[in-house]
Specification:
4-stranded antiparallel β-sheet
Length: about 160
C-alpha cells in the first residue's frame, strides 16, 4: 500500500470552514438588521422631540390657566379683550414664561419661539341678561424652524 501524500489527504468534517459566499450573506443579513435598528432609533428620537414640544406648550397653557383662575373676577388680565404680544398688551419679557428656554423667566429683552395669548369674552350663562361669567381661551404656540406646536385651552370663570 502506498502512503498518501499530505496534499491528497481529505479534510475531516470538523475541519471544513465557511465559504466566502456564506460569510458575505451573513454580513449582509447583519447589516440589514443594524440598519433597521438605526432607522428605529432615528424615528424614536423624532417622536420624543415632538412629544417634548407638545408637553411644553400644554404645560405653559395649564400654568397660565391656573394663574388666571387665581385672579379676582374683575382683574385687568380678565378684561374682555385679547391679551397677546400682537395686541400690544404683553411682551415676551413680561408674559411669565421662558420664551427662549434658557431657564430664566422674563429676563430683560427676552425673545424666543414660545408665545402665549389669551382671549376673554363675557357671557351670560344663566340667561338672566347679566354677564355672569367669562370664557377664557389660552393659546400657547411653540415655533422652532418649520415645526410648530399649538395648545389651546378653554375654561369658564364664574362671577361668584
Amino acid at each position: 500500500m502506498k502512503p498518501k501524500k499530505m496534499t491528497e489527504s481529505k479534510k475531516s468534517s470538523h475541519e471544513q470552514g465557511f465559504t466566502l459566499v456564506e460569510v458575505l450573506i451573513a454580513i449582509a443579513i447583519f447589516a440589514i438588521g443594524i440598519l433597521a435598528v438605526g432607522s428605529m432609533q432615528i424615528s424614536a428620537i423624532k417622536t420624543n422631540a415632538n412629544a417634548r414640544n407638545s408637553t411644553t406648550v400644554v404645560t405653559y397653557a395649564k400654568d397660565r390657566v391656573e394663574d388666571l383662575m387665581a385672579l379676582a373676577y374683575d382683574h385687568t388680565d380678565l378684561d374682555a379683550v385679547e391679551h397677546s404680544v400682537s395686541a400690544g398688551n404683553l411682551t415676551q419679557a413680561t408674559d411669565g414664561i421662558d420664551n427662549d428656554e434658557d431657564g430664566r423667566i422674563d429676563e430683560a429683552g427676552e425673545t424666543g419661539h414660545i408665545s402665549i395669548e389669551w382671549n376673554v369674552t363675557e357671557s351670560d350663562l344663566t340667561g338672566d341678561g347679566i354677564d355672569d361669567s367669562k370664557i377664557i381661551t389660552v393659546t400657547v404656540i411653540r415655533a422652532v424652524g418649520a415645526s410648530q406646536r399649538r395648545a389651546s385651552l378653554d375654561f369658564v370663570r364664574a362671577n361668584m
